[in-house]
From TrEMBL:
Keywords: Amino-acid biosynthesis, Aromatic amino acid biosynthesis, Lyase. The active site is at Y25, H102. The keyword Amino-acid biosynthesis applies. Substrate binds at N76, H82, D89, I103, S104, R113. This is 3-dehydroquinate dehydratase.
Length: 148
């Protein structure tokens, strides 16, 4: 089986998963999430490049690199979801299939989390499914890549 490459990208503060507000984000660490993504990738025929950065410019650089190296993107932009036109522009510029993920249900939370600059350029959005949302996003990505 040939594996399609998918970038699983994580924004600021997600390196603190497991200790960060566990009642909202759960007990799993980012390493646990990476492991789950790689296991799902094996099952779905996706090669997973799993990354996290707290820096907007680094996320944008990785998105630019993805233009030539990745077939799809699963992205939890964290707080940049609600603030970053630059990240939304990068996603539009690279034009790859994109599933946006949020661990928590942002619509059940503060009003400033209800708007996403990323959703306008995403093929799909998964939120409020906990860290399982990453696996659901990869399942959808596998379908999208199969249809191409
Ligand atoms: C988040 C939701 C965002 O509002 C927040 O800033 C995050 C995480 C989530 O996964 O639920 O850092 O993207």
């Amino acid at each position: 089986m040939s594996f399609a490459s998918v970038l699983v990208l994580n924004g600021p503060n997600l390196n603190l998963l497991g200790t960060r507000e566990p009642t909202i984000y759960g007990a799993e660490t980012l390493d646990d999430v990476a492991r789950r993504c790689r296991e799902a990738g094996q099952r779905l025929g996706l090669a997973i490049d799993f990354r996290q950065s707290n820096a907007e410019h680094q996320l944008i650089e990785w998105l630019h690199d993805a233009r030539t190296t990745q077939q799809g993107i699963v992205f939890n932009p964290a707080a940049y979801t609600h603030t970053s036109v630059a990240i939304a522009d990068a996603l539009s510029a690279i034009g790859k299939p994109l599933i946006e993920v949020h661990i928590s249900n942002v619509h059940k939370r503060e009003a400033f989390r209800h708007h996403s600059y990323v959703s306008a350029v995403a093929d799909g959005v998964i939120c409020g499914c906990g860290t399982q949302g990453y696996v659901l996003a990869l399942e959808r990505m596998a379908e999208i890549l199969k249809l191409r």
